[in-house]
Amino acid sequence: MDQVGFLIRIRAVLGRTSEATARCGETALATDWAERAQRILGAARGRWEELLPRFETELEAVAGVLHRATPTAVPAIVSRIARERQFSHVVTWSEAALGVPGLLATLRAEGLQVEEGSPDRDGGRPPGMGHGLRDALDRAGIGLTGVDYAVAESGSLVLMSGPGKGRLISCLPAVHVALLRPGQLLDTWDEVGVLLEALHRQDAFAESQSNTTFITGPSRTADIEFSLTRGVHGPKEVHVLALDR
Fold first, then answer.
1. Is residue 220 classed exposed, middle or buried when 0-12, 13-18 and 19+ CB atoms within 10 A define those classes?
2. What is the DSSP string of 201-217?
3. Domain limits of the chain?
4. What pLDDT, on a 0 to 100 scale, did the predictor assign at position 127?
5. What is the pTM assigned to this prediction?
6. Each residue's pLDDT tens digit, 99-118
7. Selecting from 3.20.20.150, 3.40.50.720, 3.40.50.620, 3.40.50.10420, what CATH number does the domain 3-13+31-228 have?
8. 158 or 211: whose pLDDT is higher?
C-alpha cells in the first residue's frame, strides 16, 4: 500500500473523510504531487495561529504537553524538564537538524550532558544502532528532536529519520521533547499524505531518508485486563515546543 492509501485508512478509522487526498490507485505525475504539496505548505505557513489551538487540544487529549516559546527559551525549558525529573543526560538530533544555533552549547552551560546521536555519527550503519549511539541512548533521560510535520486533527508528530536525525532518539528516552515551527503544522492527515507522496517521488529523498515515524502522545500499552500503562515501550512523556519562528 502506498503512503496515501495508508493515511486514508488512518482517517477512515478515525471517522474522518476528505477529498484533499487522491483516492487509492489514482495516478498522478510527480510534478502534480509537488504542486499540491507546495499549495499545502504555503497555506500552512499562514494558518499557524489558527491550527495551533486545535493541535494543543488534541495533543493534551493524548497526554502530551505543548509549550509556546521563542527559540532562545528552548534551553531553559529543556533544562527545567530535566531538573524536575532528575535527568542529566540529553541525546539530540544534530544541531543543524534542530535549527537552533548554539542550542547544544547552551544546554551544556545549563549543566546537562548533551550528546548528538544519529546513524551517520556511527558510520551510517543501517539500523542506526552503532555502539556510540546505543550508549548515548542508554544514558539519556531526554530525547530532543525537531519534527518534519505535525497534524492538528490528532495532535500527532511526523518525523523522518536520516543524516543528523536518528529515529531512536524519539523512541527510547523516557521523555521526548520536539521542536515545532510555523509551516510544519498541517490541518489533516490527508495533507500529510500528499506531502509524503510528493517527497517519495523524488529520487534524492529516497536516497537520504530511511524511516518515517508517526507519534501521537506518549507510548501506551494495555494488558489483557485493559490496564493502560505509559512508557513501557517508549517515552512516558511527550513535550512539544511550539516556536514562533
1. middle
2. TSHHHHHH--EEEEE-S
3. 3-13+31-228
4. 43
5. 0.82
6. 999 999 999 999 999 999 76
7. 3.40.50.10420
8. 158
